[in-house]
Amino acid sequence: MHLFQYVQQLVYPFESPLRVPHRIVVVNSQLYITLNPKNTTVVLVEKGCPVTVSSIVTQSNYKDLESIVQLCKTMGVKALKFGTFSRYGRGQNLERAWELTTDQDREATELIAALSSKYKGEIDVYDWSADKVEERPIDLNHGGFACGAGNLAWVISEFGNIKPCVFLPEDRFTTGNIFDDDLLLMIQEMAKQGKTIILTTHQLELAERVSEYIILFQDGQVLTFQSKSELLKEYNHQLLVEVNVHPDDQEKKSKLSGIPQDEDSSWIMPLTTFEELMIEMRAQNIRIIDLRKREKSLEKIFLELVGEKSGNVVRSSGGVS
C-alpha cells in the first residue's frame, strides 16, 4: 500500500460476479479472474483509506439494494452511491437489460430513501429523494446530483471505460483497467484478418483515422452513408489553402482578388482558382514562405450536414459509425 501513498483517489471495478456480463462491459476480461474487489476494499479500509462504493442500479438488482448496503457495511465502506445506466458504446450490447423504467426508478428512489434512513450513522447511503436534494448541490438541468453520483446515468464507452458522462474525454477520464488492449491495434489486427468491424463513436477524429465507410447520423436519422474517400471528396470540392508570405508582402496579399477566408485566415477557393492565384501572386512579386493545402475534417463535414438539415450549423448530439 505504500506505493499508493501519493494517490488521492483510486477507482477500480467492482463488477458483476457473472462472467458473461463482465466480459461485455470491461476491456480486459482477465480482470474477472485476477481481481477480488471485496478483499481489495477490506485492505484499503484496514489501511485507513476512506472508501466510497458507486453501484449501478439495474433491472436485475433494483429490488435487492439492501444486500448491497449490507455487504458494503460489513467491509467497512464509508459511503455508498447508487447510479443508473444509459446505453452507449459497449453498453449497447446490454440492450435495455440495465435501464430502469419510470416505475422502477420511482420504486428504487423510495427504497434508497428508506435505506439511507435505516443505516444512518453506520454507512452514508446517498439519497435520491426530492425532499433531500436541496441539502446538496444538484444539477438543475437534469434534476439529479453531480454526474454519476445520484440518479444520473453512467455510461460504458467503446473503450470499456465506465464514465458518469458520455462527453468526458477518454484520455482525461479513464476508469478502465490499468492494463488494457489498444482499441486501434485491435481494429487494425482484425482488419488484416479480413473481418468487418462496426465502430459506433462520438469521436469523429477516431472514425476518420480508422474507417473505410462512414455513417453519419443525428437524432436517429442517417445523414449520409458512403465510403470515407467519397465523402471527403464530395465535401472538399473547394480548396482550403493556408499561405504564409514574407512580412514585407503582407499588404500586397490583402489586395489580392476578393477570396473569402476561413476562420483561421486560410483561403477558401474553387480548385480552378488556385492556379489563377499563383499567377497573380507571381505577377505582384509576393514571396511565399509556406503554403499548405487543407481538407475539411470529418467533424466539419458533419456540422455542415447538420446545418443543411436544420437550416443552420450548430453542434449536435449526433454520432458516427
Automatic annotation (TrEMBL):
Signal peptide: none annotated. It comes from the Bacteria. This is ABC transporter domain-containing protein.
